[in-house]
Amino acid sequence: MSSALLENYGVRDLALSHGAGSYVWCEAGRKYLDFAQGIAVNSLGHCHPRLVEALTSQAGALWHTSNLFRIPASEQLAEKLTGLCFADRAFFCNSGAEAVECGFKMMRRYHYSKGDTHRKAPGGDTHRKRIIGLSDSFHGRTLATIAAAANSTHCEGFLAGDAGFDQAEFGNIDALAAAITDETAGVILEPVQGEGGIRPVDPNYLKQVRQLCDENKILLMFDEVQCGVGRTGTFYAHQQLGAEPDILASAKGLGGGFPVGACLAREAVAAPMSVGSHGSTFGGNPLAMSVANAVVDEISSPDFLEQVRANGARFMQSLRDLQAANPGIIAEVSGIGLMIGVFLNVDAGRLIAQLREEGLLVVKGGNNSVRLLPPLNVSHDEIDQAVQLIATALKKMESK
Ligand SMILES: *Cc1c(COP(=O)(O)O)cnc(C)c1O
Where in the chain is CATH 3.40.640.10? Predict the structure, then answer.
């Protein structure tokens, strides 16, 4: 298969042609149960009628205006998102990494605006700029976001120095305390780690992180690009983990498959982002905003979120039963809501390949894990089908 594409994604041998809800079909005509969903992006499954309607009706009216003009749908979405969480202001962009980047800029700008003079570096550089990231994190693939996560595979050959980022061990409050200096502007973490293998933070640890940030007068940003927008059964994951951030990055599921990102912040943190300080050509584009408004209307209803929690608990219990029956293969099942990780004692790639054979698409995660990311409106039946397919795959792997 020759191609003019960059080879960064490696060999991919399955081309999907169409989808409906939890199912997707490949070009060769085979049907799959899709628990990858574009890596937690298609939050309402494939081609949800309400999203198709939002997108196509907007497509017939106006595609793009730039931020030279008011975009009413972006004002509505900002109103909705800030009404659903701690935040007072929203900035719209096109991806997760851009949402995180905006948050990093906000952190530095906040301290700059305070005219911090506690530290006088050579060159008259006086404000706090350094940002602490945690181990096994993922924040995107731009220069700043790879520096924050410091995954060596992602950084190799790309960084100039430390780019202003420090690291601390995930879940270790003493390590975080030790990493904070008088140059630290803030901390970024995923309330539920995604790419690194699905792991919710311990709520006690999260509260301690919040307290540590307050004591040191530094900012706390949550990267909810993967775990946000209903994925865990609350609109944002931190809402069931006992601590609030100053800044939050949102993307993936927010557009239900249409590219969109948002950076949300408290007023005091958002205020220094004055006219001209930041921007995006496509950010808040009418097409993205129409779809995201429809996604948020659907997902933010209490009944919908309750359903995510119930289905997540059901799925998790079935997977724990499979773990108990297959301790040689499954090491651990972890997760929250419909964001579930299965950590393996055998090569995760083997299970993923076997599942595809059986007709179930899933995603690889870090630390030799598999991520199960069904659409949030998945049915009981579809979850039971997935459990059956996983049971079959495990049986075949055992006999191999
Ligand atoms: C996917 C992801 C990102 C990056 O999002 P992109 O849209 O690929 O830039 C950032 N943070 C987390 C937690 C993610 O899962």
Answer: 51-299
Torsion of CA 308, 310, 313, 315, to 10 degrees: -70
Measured CA to CA, the distance from residue 182 to residue 174 in angstroms comes to 17
Please give the Cα distance from 291 to 54 (Å, whole number): 6
Q: For tokens 């933010």, what's the residue?
A: 300
CATH 3.90.1150.10 residue ranges in the chain? 7-34+302-399
Q: Is the dihedral of CA 293, 226, 304, 243 positive or negative?
A: negative
* Whether residue 140 has its Cβ less than 6 Å from ligand 1: yes
Distance 35 CA to ligand 1 centre (A): 18
Amino acid 399: pLDDT = 80
Q: Which residue's alpha carbon is nearest to atom 10 within ligand 1? A: 139
Average pLDDT over residues 199-207: 97
* Average pLDDT over the chain, rounded to an integer: 95
Of 225, 247, 260, 364, the residue with max ligand 1 atoms within 8 A of its CB, to mutate for a pocket test, comes to 225
195, amino acid identity? E
CATH no., domain 51-299: 3.40.640.10
Q: 326: which residues sit within 8 A by CB, 6+ positions away? A: 394, 398
What's the residue count for the chain? 400
116 Cα to the center of ligand 1, angstroms: 31
**Ligand 1, residues 145, 170, 195, 236: which to mutate, most atoms within 8 A of Cβ?**
195
CB distance 139 to ligand 1 below 6 Å: yes
| Phi, psi of 240, deg, nearest 5 | -115, 15
21 pLDDT exceeds 60?
Answer: yes
